[in-house]
Structures are given as structure tokens and as C-alpha cells.
Amino acid sequence: MKEKNYISKARKLNKDQDYGALFAEGMLLVQKLSSNNWTDYNTHDPGITILEVLCYAITELGYKTAYDIKDLLVEREDEAFKNEFQFFTARNILTNNPVTFNDFRKLLIDVEGIKNAWLKIVENPKPDIWLDCKESKLIYEKDIKPELNHLLEEVNISGLYNIILEFEKDNEDGDLNEIFQEIKIKTASEELTILVDLPGWASFFAQKIASKEIKNFKFTGISEVNRNLYNGKMKVTLVDRTYTLNVKIHSTKKSTPERNALISAEVMKTGAGSIVDNYLKKLKKALPIAEKAFQTLHAHRNLCEDYNEFLNLEVERVSVCADIEVKTGADSEKVLAEILYKLERFIDPRVTFYSLDELIDK
Fold first, then answer.
1. CA-to-CA distance for 286 and 200, rounded, in angstroms?
2. Which three-class secondary structure state does DSSP give residue 200?
3. Is the backbone peptide bond immediately before 288 cis, with ω within 30 degrees of 0?
4. How far apart are CA 55 and CA 268, in angstroms?
5. Alpha-carbon gap, residue 201 to 313, rounded angstroms
6. Could you tell me the sign of the dihedral formed by the alpha carbons of 64, 65, 66, 69, in that order?
7. pLDDT tens-digit readout, 247-278
8. How far apart, in whole angstroms, are the C-alpha atoms of residue 307 and residue 162?
């Protein structure tokens, strides 16, 4: 006689799959712990609802973990992406969301193109916000009316951070943190240097201007401010609009009509290798890195926290003057190279990365 398949009404369930038994045990614990303060254990009570959800979640886990380990690990033969997403990596399974400043710094440093990063607490965020106690609403300081002064309380917002990013050097365009450009101008009779103080990537990022929106830059003219300072007018062309930026240009030598003409000719160039061409290349590489950092941070943002500004690291040039006595027979070039290397590591230390084995050994 052929055996019939059926589900027994009196089947024996494992405890982790028996919803009724789990709920009954949970109810006994709830009554034991809260009976002095709460006696409503009907289904409409939110606490009972939470207990029901917990019991259901346990039964689901019990059902899934009851499968043979081979069935849990082996995919179906007709699966489209067989074995591609089989297991979590150690990086995903052994870590949690960032909490401390160092956690967030590590998260940012892992973004390709970022060398280092810092978070700074915003002490006095702008604009100032006030609470209208009578109307129970928030208003900006600029909207305050004199007759409401006695009904207002200043709101000190906390949980805001400024993000400072330091980028890695680019193999083609050099230091992406150093947006300003130093240009040497040579003639038959003299040499002078100009420093073009161009705005960093953070000024475009604050205006929500993406790298793909920037088409080109062009200086439309410069004017003398004093003997060593000029003001340049730079036209910014975006996909949907244009506007003009004021750019300061510093000269190492005092102005003369001849020098003014040389500086103007250099600044107004637009071809490959010109000031505006180099500037555009650096911005096109810096802004996507900042955008990726923005997305990464917001994907891990904690409750009641937010990011106020993303700022580029200000470059500060350092000069070292020293008299060095070298031992007889020493390779002076090798000594100089080691000195420069040690100085660079001291003034601008790099973040040290460790492998999993190295961290375990520590």
C-alpha cells in the first residue's frame, strides 16, 4: 500500500519553532517582571505586540536554522549568480557602523582618493535659530520682530560636524589639495612669480555644483589693486548658467606697465597647460572624491547627527633651514634623501594601514 504524505495535527515541534510555547513562556516572564506596575496583557497592548513579533522572529530563525547545513550553503543549480554572493567578507561581517571620530575617519580614509580626514564639532551653527514659545515654531534670526523678543529662546543645535578632507596626490595633476597656482614668468631681462589664489573644491561643493556640471573657466580681465596685488575676473561656465568669480593674484615684484602686461597675458591664456586648464582638471578629479565621501558618510549617519560643511585641507608651505655636518665617507646624496624623507614623514605623517594578521598579532 502506498504511503500517504500528510501533516500530523499532533506534530512535535522544536521549542524554537513552537510559537505558542514561546509566547506562553514570554507572557509568564512579562507578568513576573511587570505585574506590580502593569496588568493589561491583552492583544491591544503595544508590549504584547512586541512580544508577538519577537516570538515570530524566533520561530522563523528556528525554521531556517533547522535545515541541513548543506542546504543552507549550496545554491540552486539554475541560480543566475551562482556562488557570487555566497558569504559575507570579514570586513562586512566583523564590523559595525562607525560611532567615534576615529571610526568615521577610518570610513573616510577607505574612500579611494582620500589620504586623511578629520571631523570637527560645530560649536555655533549658522544661521541662528530661535524658538517662538507662543506659536511653538522655529524662526531664523533675520525674521525676528521686536515685539516677539520676550517670547523667544535661542536654540543651540548640537550634533553637527564639519568634515575636512585631504586628498591623495594625483599621478597626472599633482596635489589636489593645492588648488592655487604658482607661475614663473621669465623674460630676457627678469623673472617674476605670480600666485593665483583660486577657490578650492569646497566652494563649489557648498553650492551643490557637481564636477559634470562644470564646462570651463575663463579670465575676462584683471585690475591692479596695489603694487603687488591684482584682482582677476574669472567666468565660470556651467551646464545651465554662468557666473563670475573674483580671484586674487599676487606678484613677487611691484607693478609696472610692462609687468602688468606680462601678468595679464599669462592669466588670460586658455589652452592646454594654462592656469584655467590646470584648475579645471584638478576640480574634475577633486569633486567626485568629495561627492563619494558625502555619500559614504550619509550612508552611515547616526541618529540626530548631520554634516554641516565639507572643507578642503588648507595647504601650508613649510621651509626648513639647517646646517648639517656629514661624516667622512658618507654618501651625501643618500643622507640628503633620507633627511628629506624623515622631514616629510614628520611634518606630514601618513596614516598606517595594517593587514588582518598584523592586527591580530598586535
1. 9
2. coil
3. no
4. 73
5. 10
6. positive
7. 999 999 998 888 999 999 999 999 888 999 99
8. 6
